[in-house]
Each structure stands twice: as structure tokens, then as C-alpha cells.
């Protein structure tokens, strides 16, 4: 069995009959009392976010999950349509189960997180970063770079990303898929 020493970000736990993903965790130690382990948890099968505290060494119940490669095909009124790249089987996921839904474009590689005990999909994730083309951006002011100024740019998926002043329309940029932050320009 696993205990609190095995805690890490992204771990999926079964707690009170529901599944939660660990967003952040830490340990509190005091001179008189035993150490406590705390975690901020985000609901996988529900929309709740909670905080929970365990005594150091307590048993936790992780759920074994797999990240399976899929391809995003399109979005319609039923949800996000995805295709398994090995079996070509198609599934539909609701928008609430998709992380950063504003960064998906047709043909985008993604991963479906599957509970291996029940073989049910639990969510959809993007790779760590994605390349997107800027469709609209205001021109930057020359010489205004001393303070790392940022401006809003619209990318091909319709999302608005804050980018440095030197990024122009029709450039390819790399975006962090977890935070939606600009990383760098991509050479073509």
C-alpha cells in the first residue's frame, strides 16, 4: 500500500468514494506534534476542489491511470471528438473533462487519461507545450522593451495569449499547455 511519502503532483487518489488529482502538496512539521501532510485536490469525477490533511505515514489509495495517445478531430455540440491513434476508435468527451479546451486545434495530438481498473476515460490533456500560429496581434512599439512589456495576441484556436511586443501576426509560437503562457517563437 502507498502512504503519504508517495505523494506527488498529478497523482490520482481515491478519497471518500471520489477520485481527486493532487494539484499541490506539502508537509508541516512542529517540534511537539507529528508531521502533517496536506494537499490541494481537484476532483476528477466531480467539479470540486478540496484541501485534505493526513498524518505523516498514513495510508493513501492511489488509482492506477494510463495516458493513452489520441488525436483531436473536431468539436461539435456533443463535445470533443477524439480518435485513438492505434485502433482508430473514436470517442466523444464533454468539454468539462478537457484541460485547456481553448488550445485545441484540429489534428492536435493529446492524451486521454484512463482509469485502468474500470477502463473509463477520466480526462483529456495536451502535451506539455503546443505550437500555435498568431492570427491577430497589435503592432509593438519600438524601444518599449525595458520592462518586459506584454500584449494580447489571438492564436488560431481563438485563445488570447499574452506575448512579448516583438511577436507579430502569422508567427508560430510555443505555448505552455498547463498555464497558457507564451514560451518562445518557433522557427519554421
Helix segment tally? 0
* CATH class categorisation of the largest domain: Mainly Beta
Q: Work out the radius of gyration.
A: 20 Å
Strand order of the largest sheet: 9-8-7-10-11
**Termini, distance in Å?**
49 Å
Please provide the count of β strands: 16
Count of the domains: 3
Kindly describe this structure.
This protein has three domains: 2-60, SH3 type barrels, CATH 2.30.30; 65-125, Beta Barrel (OB fold (Dihydrolipoamide Acetyltransferase, E2P)), CATH 2.40.50.140; 129-185, Beta Barrel (OB fold (Dihydrolipoamide Acetyltransferase, E2P)). A five-stranded antiparallel β-sheet has the order 9-8-7-10-11, with no helix packed on it. The protein has a five-stranded antiparallel β-sheet with strand order 14-13-12-15-16, with no helix packed on it. A four-stranded antiparallel β-sheet has the order 2-3-4-5, with no helix packed on it. The protein is built from no helices and 16 strands. It is mainly β. Helix content is 0%, strand content 52%.
What is the fold's blueprint, element by element?
Blueprint: E1 2-3, E2 12-15, E3 18-28, E4 36-43, E5 49-55, E6 59-60, E7 65-76, E8 79-84, E9 90-93, E10 109-115, E11 120-125, E12 129-137, E13 150-155, E14 160-164, E15 172-176, E16 182-185
Antiparallel strand pairs: 1-6, 2-3, 3-4, 4-5, 7-8, 7-10, 8-9, 10-11, 12-13, 12-15, 13-14, 15-16
